[in-house]
Design a protein that fits this description.
alpha/beta; homodimer; 344 residues
Chain lengths: 344, 344
């Protein structure tokens, strides 16, 4: 808690590139005066771009990274240039202990692979997971993990995801004992795969975990606000998260179409605009931005490629909170406290 | 095409029971005068309930089924009473060739298991699949299969789902060469599991299939209208379908909350009501009702448990179209025509 968070920011990532990244960093810096920020990217572009943010200029240090990993780059070529890329050099600052977290809006697969290669998994953790936040009808967002780091998972992986997800929810959502659900195709005991049933048994029998295991959760309950953490393998989690985002967009597109279908409905729309703006705000991915890789020796936050400045600032704030809360220690403590560990 | 469809209807299934079922059957009978309908259920309740539908009464025959499988019944107890239950006796009429299809709004797991046990899979098909229809931004609904019949699938299963789903889309959506996508966590060739990559290769190499294989589809693209058929294992399909339905409900709930948040927005809502009614209509599951078990020796249609009379009539119409189109023959022909069969 004592030390101010030192964050390494990949200045070149994100669909809109440097300009939007800097706008986001400027918002984050202004709202959290303690942050120590390092921008990692091509110096020749970062310096001149910083001219537009005089207040930020005096706050940041710059690390020159000659290469950029593009969204369309394959894993092999990304890893080949990792040591000289903005993604890789930002993560390296975390590895060297110079920064507490790295933030990037770049190529997710590359970020994930390079982070795993450079930082390695925490002692006691078999595989890292990518955790996402999405809105609900309740007071809080819900944490879903894994959403794409591990296509196939065994019982130990899912068990550790539950522990890591709960630590994340305690840190970011401020909950004492997060309600954890296991994603499944029904709520009856016999539903799902052996891996899921074994994980449910292990979580039910585990003592001293700082979480409240609430059993299975089905796809239509993800956004109801009945759970704080949803645990799943990276394949079904990725399908669920993207289906959720796609359907929210689908319904709002239909709504737009409906509202523009007649003069009368256009008029009604104008009148109720403040209300629909609230809806838009609640669903805006920028307000839930910041997917986090949990289980590595260091914090890596993935900002949505399409995030705007506010979204980027949000991802940076998430990283700062995780550093301040020392989430890695929380996860390690939770695993050590559990008296009923699953077979490995 | 020559013979009128003969349909066996489980009169006791569905959350609202007999009354809603009969109301739905009455709508279906009135809109399709050729249908020959058999109601399967407890005679002592069906006869008196029919008094409210004089036009229907003269059109239907009744088969007495003493037992009812309830939603909360486990598989074992359901199968124990299957031969005397309304679900089992409706399916038996299909097995005996007395009816071309069975329709039920009852316990899905029981319906699926009893249908498999009684009807067996079609020659050349390894496993049946449950196919669902869901709305899109395009002109047509999209077919998703499997949405819950098979938790784990191999390449042969997914390949056959593609063939069966395409035959279904040709029949129900009237498309000549449906665009088929394989559900995955990315669109790049290396994404997903071995099973998915092998299936993509088999579908790419297959000749003479009456479908247009369009590669991988991610969760956020399900409702865009770019695909007619989405193929997946029953686990991820169930997660995707339920997440889709749950998110549509979540967004409309948020919208309702937004519209009732102030007097001004309530007023705007009243004015734009015809537009939002259109949205409601488009998303109403009753307009997309009728999940179909494909790949069995006989057609079994699952009506949503919560379907209203209109929804039930829709499921009956789906069954009638599948009988008229002789979908089982279509699927068998497609498999036989494929010159590049996957290894079994």
């Amino acid at each position: 808690m004592a030390e101010a968070p030192r964050l390494a920011i990949d200045a070149m990532g994100g669909d809109d590139g440097l300009t939007t990244m800097l706008a986001g960093v400027a918002i984050a810096a202004a709202s959290d005066p303690e942050l120590a920020l390092t921008l990692v990217g091509q110096e020749k572009f970062v310096y001149p771009a910083l001219e537009s943010y005089p207040a930020l200029k005096s706050r940041v240090s710059i690390v020159d990274a000659p290469d950029i990993i593009r969204g369309e780059d394959g894993l092999k070529s990304a890893i080949r240039i990792s040591k000289t890329s903005s993604i890789g050099m930002a993560i390296d600052l975390v590895k060297q202990g110079k920064c507490g977290a790295a933030i990037s809006g770049g190529n997710t697969a590359a970020l994930m692979s390079i982070a795993k290669l450079m930082l390695k998994t925490m002692p006691g953790i078999d595989r890292p997971a990518l955790a996402a936040l999405t809105p609900t009808l309740g007071d809080n967002d819900v944490v879903i993990l894994d959403v794409g780091a591990n296509t196939e998972c065994d019982m130990r992986n899912l068990f550790e995801f539950a522990v890591m997800g709960a630590a994340y929810a305690r840190t970011i959502l401020g909950l004492e004992r997060p309600r954890v659900g296991l994603l499944n195709i029904g709520t009856e005991a016999q539903k799902g795969t052996d891996v899921i049933r074994d994980t449910a048994a292990a979580l039910t029998n585990a003592d001293n975990l700082a979480l409240n295991f609430c059993g299975y959760v089905e796809g239509h309950k993800l956004s109801r606000g009945d759970f704080d953490v949803i645990v799943c393998d990276g394949f079904s989690g990725n399908i669920a998260l993207k289906t959720l985002e796609g359907t929210a967009r689908f319904v709002t597109d239909l709504l737009k179409r409906a509202f523009t279908s007649s003069i009368r409905s256009k008029f009604g729309f104008l009148i109720s605009r403040p209300a629909t703006e609230l809806l838009r705000h609640h669903l805006d991915p920028n307000n839930h931005n910041g997917g986090v890789f949990l289980g590595l020796n260091g914090i890596v936050v993935k900002s949505h490629g399409s995030a705007d400045a506010k979204g980027i600032a949000n991802a940076i704030a998430v990283a700062a909170r995780l550093v301040r809360a020392d989430i890695a220690r929380k996860i390690a403590d939770d695993l050590a406290n559990n008296s009923m560990k699953p077979a490995t």
